[in-house]
Write a structure and sequence with these properties.
Elements lengths: L18 E5 L6 E6 L10 E9 L3 H12 L7 E2 L2 E2 L4 E9 L16 E2 L2 E9 L10 E13 L1 H14 L1 E2 L12 H10 L8 H25 L10 E5 L5 E4 L4 H8 L3 E7 L12 H7 L3 H9 L5 E4 L1 E2 L2 E12 L5 E4 L8 E12 L4 H6 L13 E2 L1
Length: about 375
């Protein structure tokens, strides 16, 4: 079985870590803004609500919106899951026939609850579906960095140009790896998920484990960011894939420009699969027969995910922060007293749908995959 602790040993693409730091000390250290990639229709039978939430997970907020609107929770739509321990701006849809906003949709702007508030509302034709987003924008505060700041800056410049291995982060596997452990027990006939949500989390964790193992092999051999003969390529920012029997110079250049990427398997049954699976992927999956066979048996459809993720609009600042008596930074300032200062790093970047911020941090720090950080799960 793939233990969650092994995530920290996944090979890095750009060299060893630049240091270690404290992550997500408070929710404000991790801010995520959903990037839907479209504007509200301005008409239709649904309302698109933008919420700001803190200390509240997506499923809990959906239940509260259903209660307030007097609708069934299945009528509440959202594109992805956002973790509780973060500050997030996220969109939901509710039917326009809800108990609030029938006469004036602006009534929703007065709606709030424990850990969330509605900050915008507009009419929308369709309910939001899972995965119906382009990506997420992140602002992350890294506290108490100890390491080589010059190396870290060089690594950030490389990431901005070349992207990162598109690993699934710890959040996909659940707290202490419980989602993956459940999948193992379920597929071995030892336990059955108690409900549809738990079943979905277990299936996703099993697929993520095989994908990470394939990607780790490609990173180790240096081919995670280049096409090889027999690969299946994916178009950047799209679900479009195509087979690459032989790599030519045009495809090599498109890959160098991050226009296309090699892909890896989201394991499942291959019935009607449009392209043959590369042999390396079969070899890696054979190391995890319980997961691979269980996913196929449960009828999961084989899909593809890019091995590389583009990190867009990446900016950063590195500052010295004076600490108060509790040890928390109180203000940013340029100082030299190392006994009363800590190094802080502020990062901002955009990732495509399904990519994990921890995969970015893993290329920088040696403890990014050890600490549970909030993530999006499409």
């Amino acid at each position: 079985m793939i233990e969650p602790e092994s995530l920290s040993h996944l090979p890095r693409a750009h060299g060893g870590p630049a240091g270690r730091a404290r992550l997500r000390t408070v929710p404000e250290d991790f801010v995520v803004r959903e990037w839907l990639g479209f504007e509200a229709d301005g008409e239709g039978d649904h309302l698109l609500l933008k919420l700001r939430k803190r200390g509240a997970n997506t499923l809990w907020v959906a239940k509260q919106l259903a209660r307030i609107a007097k609708i069934h929770v299945r009528d509440v739509g959202f594109a992805g899951l956002k973790d509780r321990d973060a500050v997030a701006e996220q969109s939901f849809t509710v039917p326009a026939r809800s108990a609030i906003g029938r006469d004036d949709i602006q009534e929703w702007l007065a709606v709030s609850g424990e850990g969330f508030e509605v900050i915008a509302v507009a009419r929308q034709r369709r309910k939001l579906r899972r995965g119906a987003l382009r990506g997420n924008e992140f602002e992350i505060l890294v506290r108490d960095f100890a390491g080589d700041a010059a190396l870290l800056e060089a690594r950030l410049r490389t990431i901005a140009l070349e992207g990162i291995p598109n690993y699934f982060g710890p959040q996909r596997f659940g707290h202490a790896g419980q989602n993956l452990k459940l999948a193992q027990a379920w597929f071995a006939g030892e336990a059955v998920p108690r409900d549809r949500t738990q079943r979905g989390f277990a299936l996703s964790a099993a697929r993520a484990a095989i994908f990470n193992a394939v990607l780790a092999q490609r990173v180790a051999e240096g081919s995670w960011n280049r096409l090889c003969d027999g690969d299946i390529a994916g178009l950047d920012g799209s679900a479009s894939i195509f087979a690459v029997p032989v790599v030519d110079e045009v495809l090599r250049e498109r890959c160098r420009q991050l226009d296309i990427h090699p892909t890896g398997p989201l394991w499942g049954a291959e019935r009607g699969a449009p392209e043959p699976m590369p042999s390396l992927e079969r070899q890696v999956a054979a190391l995890y027969p319980i997961l691979a066979q269980g996913l196929a048996r449960e009828g999961m459809e084989a899909q593809r995910r890019t091995l590389r993720a583009r990190v867009g609009e990446l900016t950063w600042s590195i500052t010295a922060a004076r600490c108060d008596t509790a040890g928390d930074p109180a203000a940013d300032m340029q100082v030299t007293d190392t006994q009363t200062t800590k190094t802080q790093i502020r990062l901002a970047f955009r990732l495509p749908r399904g990519a994990f911020a921890t995969a970015v941090m893993h290329e920088l720090l040696d403890n990014a995959f050890i600490q549970d950080m909030p993530e999006d799960q499409e």
